[in-house]
Amino acid sequence: LAMLQTPTSFRAHPLAMRFPSVRFLPSSAAPAVVAANARIAWMARAGNMEGARATFEAMPLRTTASYNALIAGYFRNHLPEAALGLFRRMPSRDLGSYNALISGFSLRRHTLPDAAAALASIPLPPSVVSFTSLLRGYVRHGFLADAIRLFHQMPERNHVSYTVMLGGFIDAGRLDEARKLFDEMPDKDVVARTAMLSGYCQAGRIAEARLLFDDMPKRNVVSWTAMISGYSQNGKLNLARKLFEVMPDRSEVSWTAMLVGYIQAGHIEDAEQLFNAMPEHPVAACNAMMVGFGQRGMVDAAKAVFERMQEKDDGTWSAMIKAYEQNEFLIEALSTFRDMSWRGIRPNYPSVISILTVCSALAILNYGREVHAAMLRCSFDMDIFTVSALITMYIKCGNLDKANRVFNMFEPKDVVMWNSMITGYAQHGLGEEALGIFNDMTIAGMAPDGITYIGVLTACSYTGKVKVGREIFNSMCKNSAIRPGAEHYSCMVDLLGRAGHVDEALDLIKNMPVEADAIIWGALMGACRMHKNAEIAELAAKKLLELEPESAGPYVLLSHIYTSTGRWEDASKMRKFISSRNLNKSTGCSWIEYDKRVHLFTSGDILAHPEHAIILKMLEKLDGLLMESGYSADGSFVLHDIDEEQKLHSLRYHSERQAVAYGLLKVPEGMPIRVMKNLRVCGDCHAAMKLIAKITSREIILRDANRFHHFKDGFCSCRDYW
Q1: In a domain, 536, yes or no
Q2: 437-457 pLDDT per residue, tens
Q3: Which of 199, 283, 690, 694 is buried most deeply by CB count within 10 Å?
């Protein structure tokens, strides 16, 4: 019999005379109400709260169970305020109402105190379900001490209570305490035994897990799968496969567990073979296979699985986006994310992180802002990993103010967030601000890691703070738990080299305890280019040839050094050397985001863009304005020995100038022109950009391969120290 606050017409129910405080439905109405309650619960589980609410409101008769179902649905779909409002409007409540409230508040970390208060306020004697709901919340959010206290206070416990507490100990890695509780359990069902087995597997205690598995009086497919996963996760794939082969029954989860084992071990060929042998291809298995293909760079294979899938979930889209992102198919990743959004599929954490990474790589701020808005709609703005990716996106898109606002609003901060801000300020040439963040980090009690020191040393390098950089590096060597690695020595070589201490930088390389890699020699090479030290540049180039025999980069730099000093014969020999060795030379390209599209420009190839005619006119106009402002092209940045007119023509069509010209044509006045370049900006373009920013009264933000340059009013944020 279903209870409710009953209209006057129901007072004639035969049982009402015996139980005047309880209202009863006529037997003819009960099936319809029960069916409606089930429909509300089903719609809520599917995320259709509008449908659930409409069903509830359309019911001519509502029981307490109707209210309870809708309250649970609100909580499940992250609408706690609506749930609490409905609870307060209930005409009558039963123990299930309070249990729904406790369980709902327990879903989120910050509402756990409300769950505890709800348990304390129950006017009826709380049931074991009431206590277990709060216990589950404490365990879910890592409040193990509170869970233990509540567990011991419970007037009675059932096997669910024990299993929840057991899971708390296992999740916290307290396996010995978990085993003690397991041994005390009056009823060890297959769920509890499998949980204990999984705990041993997660801790790498495979032998104990196998003993427990062998001692189980009854096993189900979950137990078998847990043992197979345990072997796989601990690198024992042969044992996992043998157990898989003797399983009495295999489920989709079993097949997927074995498949994931191969993928995690990097055995993609074995994984593909098993995948093809599967009787069915569930969504989880397809998603795992796509992840594996993506990790191996097999993007076409991942795409083939994606396109064959009849049913896709958010993990499917996330796996495809990740495969594109990690293999630098950035435009395809953007297109896939847009397609997912257009189909109304809610993004998950991995897909948001992947697309923010893409926005960072392409420096497309407008789309990054749209992703930020989607994060807010999905309540992802409280997750530390997505917020860290968001901060990085704003930094790499050149919007430090927004990155700083997001950083200041989030608590608690982890070391990754601090590092992002330090590195961001460094890349923008704001050394003082980077050092200030580093100081705030130490005051906050956050221990720096190796990446922190890279960021701080980079800040010193980009702003010429040689003395401060030396002090930080020496303190790291003497006092820090972090030992300097090749990356830190590379920062010091760059710091010294930029400041003109090229000989000292070379001495540091010769005496440092780690082997010099290509990054270190490349930093020295860049310093030689800056200070026109051909002798040490030749030594660095020779070392780089040994480390990266296929790269033309160091020889292109050496050619520039020769041309800048008028050694045209040596430059000619170097060009012939590059041609004879068939070395790889990166083509300079730049891009700019406009109207939700990425527009790409390649050095010397102005005709490739569909709007090349108006871009050419703008470049010619800029040439005239530059000449009037006293600009004179610096031909030393042209590799070939050609006449001055040809040099001017070559410099005019550098990719960053094409992108800026397009930005001047398209980006509304008052908004910065944001350009990304794959290589280091050349000195002539750097000088031209300062003048272009001044004569057009526009702000130009250029991110090259090393750092940001903010051009405004004839000046650059790097103060010409780059």
Answers
A1: yes
A2: 999 999 999 999 999 999 999
A3: 199
Q: How many CB atoms lie within 10 A of CB 136?
A: 23
How far from chain centre, in Å, is Cα 623? 43
Rg (CA), the chain: 33
User: DSSP character for 588?
Assistant: P
Q: Are residues 626 and 654 in the same domain?
A: yes
Please, are residues 185 and 178 in contact by the beta-carbon 8 Å criterion?
no
Is-contact 398 363, C-beta < 8 A?
A: yes
**For residue 637, what pLDDT is reported?**
54
Supply φ then ψ for residue 157, to 5 degrees.
-135, 150
> In CATH, what number is assigned to the domain containing residue 556?
1.25.40.10
Q: How many domains does the chain have?
A: 2
Interatomic CA distance for residues 288 and 82, integer angstroms: 37
Average pLDDT, the chain: 88
Same domain as 509, residue 484:
yes
Which of 580, 605, 622 is a domain's end point? 580
> Is 66 within a domain?
no
* 135: pLDDT strictly greater than 50: yes
On the CB side of 82, how many CA atoms lie within 13 Å of its CA? 16
Are residue 536 and residue 593 in the same domain, yes or no? no
pLDDT at position 378 is 86
Could you give the C-alpha distances from 82 to 103, 112, 571, 677, in angstroms and in order?
15, 17, 74, 49
Could you tell me if 533 and 449 lie in one domain? yes
Mean of the pLDDT values across residues 164-172? 94
Please state at what angle helix 252-264 crosses helix 237-245, rounded to 10 degrees. 160
User: Are residues 575 and 633 both part of a single domain?
Assistant: no
Burial of 668 (0-12, 13-18, 19+ CB in 10 A): exposed
Establish if 625 belongs to a structural domain. yes
d(C-alpha 291, C-alpha 318), whole Å: 9
pLDDT at 645: 46
Range of the domain at 643: 589-716
Q: What would the DSSP string read from start to end of 420-487?
A: HHHHHHHHTT-HHHHHHHHHHHHHTTPPP-HHHHHHHHHHHHHHT-HHHHHHHHHHHHHH-SSPP-HH
pLDDT band at 6 (very low <50, low <70, confident <90, very high): very low
Instruction: Give the tokens for residue 342.
Output: 């257009």
d(CA 391, CA 424): 9
Q: Per-residue confidence at 28, pLDDT binned at 50, 70, 90?
A: low
Residues 451 and 553 in one domain: yes
Q: Is there a domain that residue 667 lies in?
A: yes
48-54 contacts at long range (C-beta below 8 A, 24 or more positions apart): 49/73, 49/74, 49/77, 49/79
* Same domain as 561, residue 484: yes
Percent composition of the chain: helix, strand, coil (DSSP 3-state, to 5): 65, 5, 30
Shared domain for 466 and 571, answered yes or no, is yes
Query: pLDDT band at 555, cuts 50/70/90?
Result: confident
pTM of the shown model = 0.73
